[in-house]
Amino acid sequence: LAAPPDEPIFAVVLPQCLGVWLCSTAIYLLCSGWAAVKGQRVPHSVIRPAMVSGSLWTLGFTLMIGGINHLGYSVGYTLDAVGPIVLASLLSIFVFGEIQGRRQLYVYGFSLALQTAGTVLIAAFGREGAQAEQAAQAP
After folding, report:
1. Which H or E run includes 25?
2. pLDDT 10s per residue in the chain (139 long)?
């Protein structure tokens, strides 16, 4: 998949993020309206952390698009999909202590090794396959 040559690579960021924001805002307004009709209190203080996390998501999405543009889709998307999972699981083990016990840690280690092997194989051979595919499609 390639961007049209006359469009900047980051042209997708505004419509994607604006769409997510508009839908999220509409859902919040509908839920708040329903709560008001039912006479329930709406906890508005939860909106600030949601806005901060949405801003971080937007930054991450923008950087992901840049990485995919630079590395190619097969490599860039794979690293963007696997990297956060690895980071979150390492935080889960070492910071929050959510994965405990020798057996669970072995299972995690084995799955991490498989995921790492797959990512390395895609990084090693994905770009060549994408370039060969593009060359085959060229007129």
Report:
1. helix 13-38
2. 455 667 788 888 889 999 999 998 899 899 999 999 999 988 878 888 888 898 898 999 999 999 888 888 878 888 888 888 888 999 999 999 998 999 999 999 999 999 889 888 887 777 655 555 556 656 6
Q: How far apart are CA 99 and CA 105, in angstroms?
A: 7
Amino acid at 111: S
Distance between CA atoms of residues 24 and 134, nearest Å? 37
Angle at the Cα of 113 from the Cα atoms of 77 and 71, rounded to 5 degrees: 20
Read off the amino acid at residue 115.
Q
The rounded distance, in Å, linking the Cα atoms of 48 and 63 is 23
Distance between CA 84 and CA 81 in Å, rounded? 6
The torsion angles phi and psi of 95, rounded to 5 degrees, stand at -100, -50
110 vs 12, 113, 116, 132, CA distance in Å?
Answer: 37, 5, 10, 33
What is the token pair recorded at 101? 């016990």
Contact between 72 and 130 (Cβ < 8 Å):
yes
